[in-house]
Fold:
Amino acid sequence: MKFSKTSTLLVLVYVDDIIVSESYQQEIEKIIQLLNTTFSLKDLGNLSYFLGIKATLVADGLLLGQKKCISDLLIKSKMDNVKPLSTPMINNLKLNTCDGDPIPNDTEYKIIVGALQYITITRPDIAFSVNKVCQFMQAPHDVH
Structure:
Protein backbone atom coordinates (compact mmCIF):
# COMPACT_ATOMS: atom_id res chain seq x y z
CA MET A 1 0.00 0.00 0.00
CA LYS A 2 1.35 3.39 -0.94
CA PHE A 3 -0.29 6.78 -0.46
CA SER A 4 0.63 10.12 -1.91
CA LYS A 5 -1.18 13.45 -2.13
CA THR A 6 -2.49 12.59 -5.58
CA SER A 7 -2.92 8.83 -5.63
CA THR A 8 -3.25 5.55 -3.75
CA LEU A 9 -1.58 2.30 -4.76
CA LEU A 10 -2.91 -1.02 -3.45
CA VAL A 11 -1.33 -4.39 -4.15
CA LEU A 12 -3.19 -7.40 -2.74
CA VAL A 13 -1.56 -10.82 -2.94
CA TYR A 14 -3.21 -14.14 -2.17
CA VAL A 15 -1.18 -17.25 -3.03
CA ASP A 16 -0.69 -16.77 -6.79
CA ASP A 17 -3.32 -14.08 -7.38
CA ILE A 18 -2.40 -10.40 -7.40
CA ILE A 19 -4.70 -7.40 -7.54
CA VAL A 20 -3.19 -4.03 -8.39
CA SER A 21 -5.28 -0.92 -7.90
CA GLU A 22 -4.14 2.65 -8.45
CA SER A 23 -5.70 6.01 -9.10
CA TYR A 24 -3.89 6.33 -12.44
CA GLN A 25 -3.79 3.68 -15.17
CA GLN A 26 -0.17 4.56 -16.08
CA GLU A 27 0.93 3.65 -12.55
CA ILE A 28 -0.85 0.30 -12.75
CA GLU A 29 0.96 -0.46 -16.00
CA LYS A 30 4.32 0.48 -14.43
CA ILE A 31 3.72 -1.83 -11.46
CA ILE A 32 2.65 -4.70 -13.73
CA GLN A 33 5.76 -4.25 -15.90
CA LEU A 34 7.95 -4.18 -12.79
CA LEU A 35 6.34 -7.34 -11.37
CA ASN A 36 6.54 -9.02 -14.77
CA THR A 37 10.35 -8.72 -14.73
CA THR A 38 10.45 -11.13 -11.77
CA PHE A 39 7.22 -13.13 -12.07
CA SER A 40 5.28 -14.61 -14.96
CA LEU A 41 2.08 -12.57 -14.99
CA LYS A 42 -1.17 -12.85 -16.89
CA ASP A 43 -3.28 -9.70 -16.91
CA LEU A 44 -6.94 -10.71 -16.56
CA GLY A 45 -8.22 -7.16 -16.99
CA ASN A 46 -10.64 -5.49 -14.63
CA LEU A 47 -11.39 -7.26 -11.37
CA SER A 48 -14.72 -9.08 -11.37
CA TYR A 49 -14.49 -11.86 -8.75
CA PHE A 50 -11.88 -12.54 -6.07
CA LEU A 51 -12.05 -15.06 -3.19
CA GLY A 52 -15.83 -15.28 -3.34
CA ILE A 53 -16.29 -11.52 -3.48
CA LYS A 54 -17.86 -9.99 -6.58
CA ALA A 55 -16.35 -6.66 -7.56
CA THR A 56 -18.35 -4.29 -9.74
CA LEU A 57 -16.72 -1.20 -11.15
CA VAL A 58 -18.80 1.92 -10.45
CA ALA A 59 -18.12 5.59 -11.18
CA ASP A 60 -16.35 6.32 -7.91
CA GLY A 61 -14.70 2.95 -7.16
CA LEU A 62 -15.57 -0.70 -6.61
CA LEU A 63 -18.77 -2.14 -5.22
CA LEU A 64 -18.06 -5.38 -3.33
CA GLY A 65 -20.69 -8.04 -2.73
CA GLN A 66 -21.03 -11.65 -1.63
CA LYS A 67 -24.56 -12.47 -2.80
CA LYS A 68 -23.64 -15.95 -4.07
CA CYS A 69 -21.69 -16.80 -0.91
CA ILE A 70 -24.61 -15.64 1.26
CA SER A 71 -27.14 -17.53 -0.86
CA ASP A 72 -25.05 -20.73 -0.70
CA LEU A 73 -24.71 -20.38 3.08
CA LEU A 74 -28.47 -19.93 3.51
CA ILE A 75 -29.09 -23.10 1.50
CA LYS A 76 -26.39 -25.05 3.36
CA SER A 77 -27.83 -24.03 6.74
CA LYS A 78 -31.39 -24.77 5.56
CA MET A 79 -32.42 -21.16 6.10
CA ASP A 80 -33.10 -20.22 2.47
CA ASN A 81 -36.88 -20.08 3.06
CA VAL A 82 -36.91 -17.97 6.23
CA LYS A 83 -38.20 -14.41 6.33
CA PRO A 84 -35.57 -11.67 6.61
CA LEU A 85 -35.38 -9.44 9.67
CA SER A 86 -34.33 -5.81 9.85
CA THR A 87 -31.88 -6.61 12.69
CA PRO A 88 -29.74 -9.76 12.85
CA MET A 89 -30.47 -10.44 16.53
CA ILE A 90 -32.63 -9.28 19.42
CA ASN A 91 -31.24 -6.23 21.23
CA ASN A 92 -30.01 -6.88 24.78
CA LEU A 93 -30.07 -10.65 24.26
CA LYS A 94 -28.06 -12.37 27.00
CA LEU A 95 -26.61 -15.71 25.98
CA ASN A 96 -24.86 -18.05 28.39
CA THR A 97 -22.74 -21.12 27.79
CA CYS A 98 -25.25 -23.24 29.73
CA ASP A 99 -28.41 -22.13 27.87
CA GLY A 100 -30.14 -24.75 25.73
CA ASP A 101 -28.96 -28.21 24.78
CA PRO A 102 -25.50 -29.01 23.37
CA ILE A 103 -25.32 -29.50 19.62
CA PRO A 104 -24.39 -33.17 18.98
CA ASN A 105 -22.15 -32.36 16.00
CA ASP A 106 -20.68 -28.88 16.39
CA THR A 107 -18.70 -29.04 13.11
CA GLU A 108 -21.60 -27.67 11.06
CA TYR A 109 -22.05 -24.81 13.55
CA LYS A 110 -18.35 -23.94 13.27
CA ILE A 111 -18.46 -24.02 9.46
CA ILE A 112 -21.49 -21.73 9.35
CA VAL A 113 -20.03 -19.28 11.88
CA GLY A 114 -16.71 -19.26 9.97
CA ALA A 115 -18.58 -18.44 6.75
CA LEU A 116 -20.48 -15.67 8.55
CA GLN A 117 -17.16 -14.21 9.70
CA TYR A 118 -16.03 -14.08 6.07
CA ILE A 119 -19.29 -12.43 5.02
CA THR A 120 -18.72 -9.56 7.47
CA ILE A 121 -16.14 -8.25 4.95
CA THR A 122 -19.00 -6.86 2.88
CA ARG A 123 -21.72 -6.92 5.55
CA PRO A 124 -20.37 -5.10 8.62
CA ASP A 125 -23.97 -4.73 9.83
CA ILE A 126 -23.91 -8.35 11.01
CA ALA A 127 -20.48 -8.17 12.69
CA PHE A 128 -21.84 -7.74 16.23
CA SER A 129 -24.16 -10.75 15.92
CA VAL A 130 -21.46 -12.89 14.33
CA ASN A 131 -19.08 -11.94 17.14
CA LYS A 132 -21.74 -13.01 19.65
CA VAL A 133 -22.10 -16.51 18.17
CA CYS A 134 -18.30 -16.83 17.85
CA GLN A 135 -18.11 -16.66 21.62
CA PHE A 136 -19.74 -20.10 21.79
CA MET A 137 -17.53 -21.93 19.27
CA GLN A 138 -15.98 -24.10 22.01
CA ALA A 139 -19.30 -25.65 23.06
CA PRO A 140 -22.26 -24.43 20.98
CA HIS A 141 -25.82 -25.10 22.11
CA ASP A 142 -29.05 -25.06 20.10
CA VAL A 143 -29.96 -21.53 21.29
CA HIS A 144 -26.68 -20.11 20.02
Notes: The CA atoms of residues 117 and 130 lie 6 Å apart. The longest strand covers residues 8-14. The radius of gyration is 20 Å. The chain is about 30% helix and 20% strand.
